[in-house]
Amino acid sequence: MLRSPSGPLVRLAPTFQVTRAAWSIRVEHRLVFFFFCIGSGDQHRRKTKKKKYLLKQEGPTTVNVRVTGLAPGLHGFHLHEFGDTTNGCISTGPHFNPNNMTHGAPEDEVRHAGDLGNIVANAEGVAEATIVDKQIPLSGPNSVVGRAFVVHELEDDLGKGGHELSLSTGNAGGRLACGVVGLTPL
């Protein structure tokens, strides 16, 4: 469920509706499908078919973002550590940072795994972006599943702004909207 700092949001599949912004985010990774048939030759027993999905570890994750209702301009976009929205977007915690690095740009060697840069809202307040990143896998110990994407009020200075918050948050300001990453059937 998405939340804004002012409270819970209404979910409209596949887009989330917020008081100030509507957004949809799609996270993609290559899947490997394995099919197993389980059962016996006994005619009185039902054969069951199981489908198992395994995520490939190699390769980047693609995040397709569309956010509406924003102020025109740049907005920081990050993956935060927790998928907890009990206190709005504040309870999502800090940027996801499993390697204990300082804040940086998505292309920097030294950065939080959750540092995904900025999305740009046009004059109509619509931001669309495709982000491809190797540090945010859908499986394994650093999985994005259960964490939260957050759209920030201001531009992320990518750790280069010289502000006291530059190396921790990119000085990107308040949290406008957030959503927990979960898996759903295709």
Task: List the main descriptive attributes of the protein structure presented here.
186 residues, single chain, 5-stranded antiparallel β-sheet, 4-stranded antiparallel β-sheet, mainly beta, 14 strands, Immunoglobulin-like, globular
Q: What is the annotated CATH architecture? A: Sandwich
Query: What is the count of DSSP helices, taking H or I runs of 4+ residues?
Result: 1
Structural class: mainly beta
Highest-level CATH class: Mainly Beta
Task: Tell me the helix content.
Answer: under 10%
Straight-line distance between termini: 18 Å
Shape: globular
Main β-sheet description? 5 strands, antiparallel
Explain the layout of strands and helices.
Blueprint: E1 3-4, E2 7-8, E3 10-12, E4 15-17, E5 22-28, E6 31-38, E7 48-55, E8 61-68, E9 73-80, E10 86-89, E11 115-121, E12 127-133, E13 148-152, H1 166-169, E14 175-180
Antiparallel strand pairs: 1-2, 3-4, 4-5, 5-8, 6-7, 8-12, 9-11, 9-13, 13-14
Can you give a write-up of this model?
The chain is an all-beta fold and 186 residues long. It has a single domain, classed as Immunoglobulin-like (Sandwich), CATH 2.60.40. Helix content is 2%, strand content 42%. It is built from 1 helix and 14 strands; from the N terminus they run βββββββββββββαβ. It has a 5-stranded antiparallel β-sheet, with no helix packed on it. Strands 11-9-13-14 form a 4-stranded antiparallel β-sheet, with no helix packed on it. The longest helix is centred in the C-terminal third of the chain and has 4 residues, at 166-169. The radius of gyration is 19 Å and the shape is globular. Residues 1-21 and 29-55 have low confidence and may be disordered.
